[in-house]
Amino acid sequence: MPASTQVDFYILEAARPGGRLNFACRLSEKAYSLGNAVYAHTASEQDASRLDELMWTFRQGSFVPHERQTSGESTAPVSIGTPEACRHEGEVLINLCNNVPEFATGFVRIAEIVDGTESGKAAGRQRFRQYREMGLEPETHTIR
Fold first, then answer.
1. In whole angstroms, what is the distance from residue 134 CA to residue 95 CA?
2. Where are the alpha helices (DSSP H) in 38-143?
3. Cβ atoms of residues 112 and 125 within 8 Å
4. CA angle, 71 as apex, 17 and 93 as ends, to 5°?
5. What residues are paired with 114 via a beta bridge?
6. What gap in Å lies between CA 41 and CA 83, rounded to an integer?
7. Quick check: 1 pLDDT over 60?
8. How much is the average pLDDT of 88-109?
9. Residue 16, Cβ neighbours under 10 Å: how many?
10. Where are the domains of the chain?
């Protein structure tokens, strides 16, 4: 585990379809611009494909060099994976699953995105409790 893993919860007030993936693109772009390597962990191949496509189109003029994580190592600054093909350590983890991955503390920073739906909030509260049980103190940020 890195010396001190920082966990940030981004609470999206709106319950827009695709809101979590859009915000993941924004976070990836910001982290990349700061020189950080990013791993976006999705729950399924379908979510990974949607995020991969969205990385090209989420904002006019944006460029986020990325690739899908496969069984080998990714060389792009931003990689997108699933439980079947994932990175186990690094700088920034954007977790888009409804549970905390076992390898989460292998990252310096963890970003959790919680949408405004009731199921999204419930899953977010559960992940928040899990991090606390792991001895981490998450910070929350409300995104309007």
1. 16
2. 45-57, 118-133
3. no
4. 45
5. 11
6. 8
7. no
8. 94
9. 13
10. 6-143
Say how far residue 108 (Cα) sits from the centre of its chain: 13
Instruction: Kindly report, residue by residue over 54-92, the tens digit of the pLDDT.
Output: 999 888 887 789 999 876 677 889 999 998 888 888 899
pTM of the model: 0.93
CATH of 6-143 given 3.90.1300.10, 3.40.50.10110, 3.10.20.340, 3.40.50.720: 3.40.50.10110
- For a pLDDT cut of 90, what percent of the chain falls above it? 73
**What is the model's pLDDT at position 91?**
95
Residue type, 136: L
Strand order in the sheet with 139-143: 66-68, 78-81, 38-41, 90-95, 107-114, 6-12, 139-143
